[in-house]
Amino acid sequence: MTDLVLETRGITKSFGALKASDSIDFDLRPGEIHAIIGPNGAGKSTLIKQISGELRPDAGQVFLAGTDVTQQTTRARARAGLGRTFQISELAMEDTVLQNAVLGALGASGSVWRFLKPVLSDAELVTRAEEALDRVGLLDARNQRTAELSHGQRRQLEVAVALTLRPKVFVMDEPMAGLGAEGSLTMTRFLDGLRSEAPILLVEHDMDAVFALADRISVLVYGRLIATGTVDEIRSNAEVREAYLGE
Ligand code: ADP
Ligand code: MG
């Protein structure tokens, strides 16, 4: 038995001659935020995609709450409790904020949304969607067109879309990207409150946010995890400073 909510064992993925994931062992414990940092092209998004099911590893396994989900679809993993923030590009810009959140409750992707519109009358879906919007501070904007939202609000909406599935674990790829200082702080506070209900794998470039939030940090360089430790351990790790922090 394991109490790890998420685990990868020996995840390996190549693109041609490039090894984007080189035998990665990663795990996420209940209640924690485990950040992955590393330079551009290190393989952070590639790892996340193998965890969410968008990419199949060449070798290795992904476990969700102890169950091997390596062969499962993205959809099945979402139903099993894996919450993945959607990219802004997957939001339906002409639809309202509420419609996009309902889409999350359906566990559907943007492209499928048009076929599912009649389901909007389902009171439970709307209730869940409104709950999620309320939590990210977007309830008042629920009838606005998504295109009218600020960049920061769209980021919050992405999180709301993921929240509607009531995930057991969150996987987030750079949720602070493109947010100003104020937006980053709002998101940081929000993620801090979220960890007790769903632990978070956080890929993030904003080091202030990472140092404020992370219980553990793993450092990925050229597809290899070179270190895992607490904030203090990582900040004082000579290899990390050289390879990533540029010191
Ligand atoms: P990060 O998210 O850390 O910036 P990525 O996981 O996006 O890095 O990319 C890791 C490496 O794999 C990069 O060199 C990138 O160019 C390459 N890569 C990512 N996706 C693909 C793909 N679909 N086809 C070919 N190369 C890819
Ligand atoms: Mg990336």
TrEMBL record:
Any single Gene Ontology cellular-component annotation: plasma membrane
SMART domains in the record: AAA
Pfam families reported for this sequence: ABC_tran, BCA_ABC_TP_C
MF terms in GO: ATP binding; ATP hydrolysis activity
Occurrences of domain ABC transporter (ranges): 6-247
PROSITE patterns hit by this protein: ABC_TRANSPORTER_2
Alphabetized UniProt keyword annotations: ATP-binding, Nucleotide-binding, Transport
Protein name in UniProt: ABC transporter ATP-binding protein
Source species of the chain: Actibacterium pelagium
